[in-house]
Amino acid sequence: MDTIDVSNLNRQFLFRMKDVGQPKATVAAERINARVPGVKVTPHFGRIEDQPADWYRSFSLIVLGLDSLEARRYMNSVVCGFLEYDDEGQPDLGSVKPMVDGGTEGFKGHARVILPGHTPCFECTLWLFPPQTKFPLCTLAETPRSPAHCIEYAHLILWGQVRPGEEFDTDNEEHMKWVYDKAAERAKQYGIPGVTFQLTQGVVKNIIPAIASTNAIISAQCVLEALKTLTCFSTGLDNYMMYVGSTGLYTHTAKYEKDPACPVCSAGVPLEVDPDATLQQFIDQLLADPALGKLLAAPSVSYGSTNLYGRGVFEAETRPNLARRLTELLGGGAAAEGAVLTVNDKKLRGPLRVRLRLGSGMSG
C-alpha cells in the first residue's frame, strides 16, 4: 500500500518526480514492463492480508521485500500453512512453497531462503530480530541526552498533556510538525543539537534511512537466490546471509537450524496430556500453555478428516465430544500416543499441528 515520496527518488531508477503520490507497485510495474522485453509484471495496490491463501499458492516462489517483522510473520504463516506432512512427519515436497526474504537497515542487511518444513522459518528464528529501542520515561522527562530523547518526550509525554484525547497520527503532517517544534524547543533548552524534521519522522515512525548501496546488494542476492531455487543451476544459500557495510564490507553466511517444536512450520508441536483428559481439558490446556495460548482465542480441533470440535455451524454437532476422553475419541491410548491433532483458530493464519504425548500433563 506504499506510495511514492520525494525522498524515494534518490536511490532508485523506476520513479520520477511526476510519479510522487502514485502507488509504487503500479508505477514500478509500468516501468519494468516498458524496459524489459518479454516480462509481464502485474501490480497489486493493497494489503497483503487482503489476498486469499490460494492466490499465494498459485506462485512458484515468493520473494519478500517487506518493512516489518509483523508482515514477514504473516507471509511466513501463509506459506507454512500450505505444508502437508506424511505419517512419519516428513513434509510433502509438493506442498513446499519456497520463499526468499531480504531486508535492510541502514548499512546492514540480510537475505535468507526459507523452504518451509526443511529450513527454519521466521517463527523458528524470531530471536534474530532485536527488540525495538525503548527509552525509560524518566530519562525522557528528566535527563534527556540525545535528539531522540527530545523527540520521544514530545511524542509520548507532551502530546498527551497538551492535546489530551486526540490520537496521534504518524501520517498527519500537522501532527508531525507539532512534535518537531516541541522537540526542537526542548533540545534548545537542554543544549542538545541535531533535532530535524526528518529525524523526527524517523524516530516517531521507527524509520532508519535507506542506503542505496545496501539495497542494491541485498536485492541482488535475493534475485540470485530466486534464480537458483527456480532453475537449480547452482547450490542455493543455506540458509542466511548477513551484510554489514558500516565499517568496511563484511558478509557472513550461517546455517540456522529448524525448531522442531515451532508452532508454525513443525510437523507437530509436542504436548504432554493426561490419558484421562477430556477434549475440553485438552483445549483448556492449549489456551493455558505459555507459548500456544497467545496464538489462540477460540480453537477448533480435528484429527485427520474427523472434526472433533468445531466452532460455528459444527458447534452443536460436535459439542458432546467436549465431555469425552480425548484418547477415546482417537481410538484408544495406543492410537493417541503420537497422534497429530490439527488446531484451527481465527487468530491463526494457518493450521497448528499438535503432537500428543501421553503422560501427566493435566495433573495438578
UniProtKB/TrEMBL annotation:
Keywords: ATP-binding, Ligase, Nucleotide-binding, Ubl conjugation pathway
Residues annotated as the enzyme's active site: C138
UniProt enzyme class: ligase
Protein's UniProt keywords contain ATP-binding: yes
Positions of the E2 binding domain: 271-359
Highest taxon listed in the record's lineage: Eukaryota
EC number: 6.2.1.64
InterPro entries for this protein: E2-binding, ThiF/MoeB/HesA, ThiF_NAD_FAD-bd, Ub_act_enz_dom_a_sf, Ubiquitin-activating_enz, UBQ-activ_enz_E1_Cys_AS
PROSITE patterns hit by this protein: UBIQUITIN_ACTIVAT_2 (PS00865)
SMART domains from the UniProt entry: E2_bind
Sample GO molecular function, one term: ATP binding
Catalytically driven reaction(s): ATP + [NEDD8 protein] + [E1 NEDD8-activating enzyme]-L-cysteine = AMP + diphosphate + [E1 NEDD8-activating enzyme]-S-[NEDD8 protein]-yl-L-cysteine
Listed PANTHER family: NEDD8-ACTIVATING ENZYME E1 CATALYTIC SUBUNIT, UBIQUITIN-ACTIVATING ENZYME E1
The protein's name: NEDD8-activating enzyme E1 catalytic subunit
Organism in which the protein naturally occurs: Chlamydomonas incerta
